[in-house]
Amino acid sequence: MNDDLDPRTPVVIGVGQFSERIDRPDYRGLSPVELAAAAAEAALVDSGADPAVVAEALDTVAGVRQTEISLPGLPTTLGRSDNFPRSVADRVGAAPRRAVLEVGGGQSPQHLVNEFAGEIAGGRAEAVLLVGAEATSTTRHLSAAADKPDFSEHVDGDLEDRGYGLSGARSSYAVDHGLTGAPVLYALFENARRARLGSSRAEYARSMGELFAPFTRVAARNPHASAPIERTAAELVVPTEANRLIAYPYTRYVVAREKVNQAAAVLITSITTALALGVPQEKWVFLHGHADLRERNLLDRADLSESPASVSAARHALEMAGVGVDDLATFDFYSCFPIAVFNTAIDGLGLAAEDPRGLTVTGGLPFFGGAGNNYAMHAIAETVQRARTAPGSFGFVGANGGALSKYSAGVYSTRPVPWRADDSTSLQQQIDRLPAPAQVLRANGWATIETYTVTYDRDGSRAGVVVGRLEHDGGRFLAQTCSDDEEVLEMLSSGEPIGQRVFAKWTPRGNRIAVSDVRMSHLYPARVPAFREHYEHLTVRRDGRVLEIVINRPDQRNALHPPANDELDEVFDAFFADPGLWVAILTGAGDKAFCAGNDLRWQARGNRVWVPEGGFGGLTDRPSLPKPVIAAVNGFAMGGGTEIALTCHLVVADVTATFALTEVKVGLIAGMGGLIRLPRMAPTKLANEMILTGRRLGAQEALSHGLVNRIAPAGGALAAARELAAEILAVSPTSVRVSLQVMQETQAIADIRAAVQHRSAAVDELLVSEDMIEGVQAFAEKREPRWRNR
User: Fold this and answer.
1) Which DSSP letter does residue 81 get?
2) Do the beta carbons of residue 649 and residue 625 sit within 8 Å?
3) Given phi > 0 = left and psi -120 to 50 = alpha, else beta, which region is 678?
4) What are residue 397's DSSP bridge partners?
């Protein structure tokens, strides 16, 4: 060893792996903790020192988050430890002062190596165990068993739980357009790359098979592989019953294998601790280069066919190590999908798919296995073992997380080297400064396809997902195909769709595309405003010039789900379009609630949620309400119910009425206008308190703050609203309508004088209206005016 090395220099001293398969006679159905403990024990033994002494020296155990706890709300079918790192530590006889549960993502193992090597070099740690495990195969295999095991366990001690790490990874916009799984997301990148290269569908499929066929040969020799079967390039990419299409261009065989029972562990110490523990120096492996970078969010990327962050991370790690790709003896490129390898290894580093060194040391995620977060720990373990068998050689590990989102890289060798910090921060700043196209949430008009995929269900049904660019401004948007639009599905399933012209239209359920505007008009004909004879979730009554609308879901406290919202949107369209109706009253059925907001029970059952074009209750997102709408609040107006009331021009509440924006109590926000309208209508401090705590406001207090116009006796809100409507009917409907329009036009004009001087075309129309003439004549003749609403 070089005596000049800082004694705090970090070294990998031990690695371990463990696995079991349900088709083997020695299968035991181990929990993630038990699998991880077996891998940790193997790593302790691998150090060459006394395992018990090494375990006792551990001051930190950091765990990789399992798949089943990587997203909020996922069920843990067989239970789980509430402190995974300490559960593993207990089993191997360790009592660390620090326990860490890392964020989700396939980059996690290599990131942990990079991070804790730095912690050791900085003197903040001496001996660290990194460990992760997945028992997804066992969970599926035993979840329905009559005597299924319970993997739940409680462990005392602190835990540094770093959360899910989902910032930027998911958005409601993406979910609403079918981007809910990794195959769909990666297929978008894959097809963008194919188009950039100018490859035909057949040529690109062949290249994916040729890339991954060598991976299967490595997996076939790996005792820990979950699918140790050698396959030809054609077998991997030709669709069959067993190898069905999932999301074009992916068949099942070329995507990460999600059902595994595998664990791996890595031990890192300082040189001082390694010497004190008696770890033989031939076991030491140094981290020569490392980097951690993050890609921009999906729609913020300049080019969807590549990921500059992963390439930059790989290059930087090699530069730190002072080696080039020709100097490397081994590689392991994260291989959840072909694009992950193509992007970094082939396009970024200039390697060939048939490189004799191979692009994986494990067999890769589709064949070795590794859906989840811990795959790269196995790659590190294999790389360390191979570095020891060829002293002085170099091995590269690249670990990818998210949707080509996060990349961590490491270069390993037994050759001693001082610890150096990487320059990831400045590289990240460069990536963050890359240009980004404007995003369009509601796409309307002609567009071109930037990239796409077609998803395939087991029943044979298919759906298209598209990233498009609007022709008029280049804005980027997400869209789906209509479920029954075979024309556009055929276009996406043959030839080269990228660059093709399509027509986009926003709908309440998201953006949709069709082959032409004519086809779109056929699929989504313009709705002619009209009333139905019957509504499922409302009762609608016409009383002369007044329309009374009752939300008729009393068993749900008149909470609104999408079908009810759709009906309200349709009713208000018809109301505003009908010249014979001058005022609308909205109330709730029964005496308990006006509207309890969004129907969370509907949502919790997994039903899809959408909001119509007019917004929640058919009102909150309208650009204007050209006729008076009165809310007759009887009982609770909670969450979205208050947001509807805030949207209405006038509010009559009975003495039992209660107003509140309760969204924060269920982990949501008042996103249907409450956050905007309440601070503009109520005193700032009161609005803040209601929004931030969910505080309830009674009818009398709401009246005192100007949120309510009138208070009625219990059960009398509707009657009082009718009286208020009658007062409006007594005045000129044209004047009412023009007044509302002018108020709407001047609302955003901050300067009062400028607002007063604002010229509105509506006023010019008023001056020549029949109602204006009638009003003046009736006043002069001392009679009641006869309004015509024109």
Assistant:
1) B
2) yes
3) alpha
4) 332, 410
Structure tokens at 606: 């997994």
Task: Return d(Cα 169, Cα 373) in angstroms, integer.
Answer: 15
Which of 643, 689, 774, 784 is labelled catalytic? 643
Three-class SS state of 60: strand
User: For this structure, is 663 an active site residue?
Assistant: yes
d(CA 219, CA 212): 11
Answer whether 784's CB lies under 8 Å from 774's CB: no
Strand arrangement, sheet containing 583-588: 538-543, 546-551, 583-588, 629-633, 650-654, 710-712
Q: Does the pLDDT of residue 155 top 70, yes or no?
A: yes
- Determine contact, residues 378/368, Cβ cutoff 8 Å: yes
Burial 747-768 (b: 16+ CB within 10 A, else e): eeeeeeeeeeeeeeebeeebee
- The average pLDDT across 169-192 equals 89
Residue 413 phi, psi (nearest 5): -165, 150
Place of tokens 């093709």: 500
Distance (Å) of CA 151 to CA 360, 370, 649: 33, 21, 56
**pLDDT > 80? residue 169:** no
Residue 789 structure tokens? 């609403």
Question: How is 246-269 classified by DSSP, letter by letter?
Answer: EETTEEGGGS-----EEEEEEEEE
**Contact, 374 vs 263, CB < 8 A?**
yes
Closest alpha carbon to 618 in 540, 698, 721, 716: 540
CA distances from 563 to 481, 535, 658, 668, 690 (A): 21, 10, 25, 21, 29
Q: Single out the residue of 63, 5, 7 nearest to residue 36, CA to CA.
A: 63
Interatomic CA distance for residues 272 and 250, integer angstroms: 49
Cα 195 from Cα 348, distance rounded (Å): 17
- Host H or E run for residue 473: none
d(CA 705, CA 248): 57
User: Which value, to the nearest 10 degrees, does the dihedral of the CA atoms of residues 261, 267, 268, 273 take?
Assistant: 170
Q: Among the options 663, 770, 774, 781, which is catalytic?
A: 663
For the sheet containing 261-270, what is the strand order?
A: 10-19, 261-270, 127-135, 60-63, 98-101, 160-161
Burial of 789 (0-12, 13-18, 19+ CB in 10 A): middle
Whole-angstrom Cα distance, residue 278 to residue 698? Answer: 73
Indicate the pTM of the whole model: 0.89
What is the pLDDT, as a whole number, of residue 72?
A: 77
Q: Which of 481, 425, 431, 421 is nearest to 455 (CA)?
A: 481
Q: What pLDDT, in 10s, does the model give residues 464-484?
A: 999 999 999 999 999 999 878
Told to judge if 354 belongs to the known catalytic residues of this protein, a careful annotator would answer: no
Count each helix (H run) and each strand (E run) in the chain, helices first.
27, 27
